[in-house]
Design a protein that fits this description.
CATH architecture of the largest domain: 2-Layer Sandwich
Bound molecules: flavin-adenine dinucleotide, uridine-diphosphate-2(N-acetylglucosaminyl) butyric acid
Helix content: 10-25%
Order of helices and strands: EEHEEEEEHEEEEHEHHEEHEEHEEEHE
Oligomer: single chain
Number of helices: 8
Largest sheet: 5 strands, antiparallel
Number of domains: 3
Radius of gyration: 20 Å
Strand content: 25-35%
CATH topology of the largest domain: Uridine Diphospho-n-acetylenolpyruvylglucosamine Reductase, domain 3
Length: 339
């Protein structure tokens, strides 16, 4: 039986290191514990806030409700055929540990997603992606608990409506479901994906002769470590904003004025702009105001040097958005979940 505690500091529960307070707080390791806690919610009717690793949350203020830390464990093979293995992982499992487990077994599909912080349960929330791969490519299904109707529901990939850093859980069903576990369809015969960014260069630098999922994972880890700040050393939530997409004619205009603009074509004819480039060109890279700042190596990452409040980080994000809008006429959208 888990206890609901009062007035718990959240600093250790979010990688930005924001010192907000949860009025009520508990953790759970099973559906039974979760449903008991929902029954005992001191503010009945108000949906609890679920946290995993807290690596994509900005606590703008204290949470005047119930915060529940998802610690559901477990990894098991649920199905296997000649080409695939279906692995079900508890929502509380650490994402990178899960990736390492797959690498140890030679199951391919998540190697490009190495070193993303957080838990398995949050991975479908924004369809995590990196280095040319998104979770939707290996997603089989998930089980989630509806907090008001108190029922379990299975979601297929189509049900999740995955998009770039998007799913139904981030929008339509926000705060309605608790993801309990996720089943991934991993490949026994790997299809290597090395076309993105600097992976090939890094593999060459590493002297890799025989391509493998383990080598790709290491290359991704090396690239990530060279540009993204380690949350254990400096508070951050990864990319604070999404890379915005614009119509092709808008891009053509921007390209005329800014020939060096960094952009990638989307399948639908629109063009995705590198927000880090826009923010850097607007003069923000390395900017610091009190303990809130824009990372010196990656302008898409906002950082907390120690004691920035959630409001200070939020206000800085507003200023960055305003300035990019004014300079380029492009609106940025936050990727981080603001609470
Ligand atoms: P949390 O921050 O705890 O939660 C995120 C959101 O999901 C919140 O709204 C929360 O309420 C909800 N939530 C969490 N768990 C559940 C659940 N079980 N059921 C229902 N709702 C839930 N992301 C990428 O996509 N690609 C990257 O390359 C990447 N790199 C990063 C690098 C760094 C250094 C950092 C700090 C972050 C990075 N991120 C990246 C963002 C983040 O790691 C991912 O979004 C991750 O999936 C968040 O997991 P979490 O457990 O920390 O989620
Ligand atoms: N750039 C700059 N200045 C900067 C940062 C970037 O000019 O300060 C330009 C560079 O030209 C660079 C390009 O932008 O080549 C792209 O930068 P990077 O490769 O670092 O990737 P990103 O677009 O900034 C995205 C994801 C990351 C993911 C990486 C790798 C989003 C919002 N972010 O970053 O995801 O790890 O690609 O795939 O899509 C996250 O979501 O939290 C996250 C870290």
């Amino acid at each position: 039986m888990t206890q609901i505690q009062q007035n718990i500091p959240l600093r250790q529960y979010n990688t930005l290191g924001i010192d907000a307070i949860a009025r009520h707080f508990a953790s759970f390791t099973s559906l039974d514990e979760l449903s008991e806690l929902i029954e005992e919610n001191p503010i009945p009717g108000k949906a609890p806030l679920i946290v995993g690793g807290g690596s994509n949350i900005l606590f703008k203020e204290d949470v005047n409700g119930l915060v529940l830390k998802n610690d559901i464990p477990g990894v098991e093979i649920v199905q296997e055929d000649a080409d695939h293995v279906y692995v079900k992982a508890g929502a509380g499992e650490n994402w990178h540990k899960f990736v390492q487990f797959c690498l140890q077994h030679n199951w391919a599909g998540v190697e490009n997603l190495s070193l993303i912080p957080g838990c398995v349960g949050a991975s479908p929330m924004q369809n995590i992606g990196a280095y040319g791969v998104e979770i939707k490519e290996v997603f089989a299904e998930l089980e989630a608990w509806h907090v008001h109707d108190k029922r379990k529901q299975v979601f297929s990939a189509a049900d999740c409506a995955f998009g770039y850093r998007e799913s139904v859980f981030k929008r339509k069903y926000r705060n309605q479901f608790v993801i309990l576990n996720v089943t991934f369809r991993l490949n026994k015969k790997p299809r290597f994906n090395t076309s993105y960014g600097a992976i090939e260069q890094e593999l060459e630098r590493m002297g890799v002769q025989q391509l493998s999922i383990q080598a790709i994972s290491q290359a991704v880890i090396n690239i990530r470590s060279s540009k993204l700040p380690d949350p254990a050393k400096i508070g951050n939530a990864g990319s604070f904003f999404k890379n915005p997409s614009v119509e092709a004619d808008v891009y053509a205009q921007l390209k005329k004025v800014y020939p060096a603009i960094v952009a990638y074509p989307n399948a639908d004819g629109t063009v995705k702009l590198a927000a880090g480039w826009l923010i850097e060109q607007a003069g923000w890279k390395g900017y610091r105001r009190g303990d809130a700042g824009v990372h010196e190596k990656q302008a898409l990452v906002l950082v907390n040097y120690g004691n920035a409040s959630g409001k200070e980080i939020y206000d800085l994000s507003e200023d960055v958005m305003r300035s990019v809008q004014a300079k380029f006429g492009v609106g940025l959208e936050r990727e981080v979940n603001v609470v």
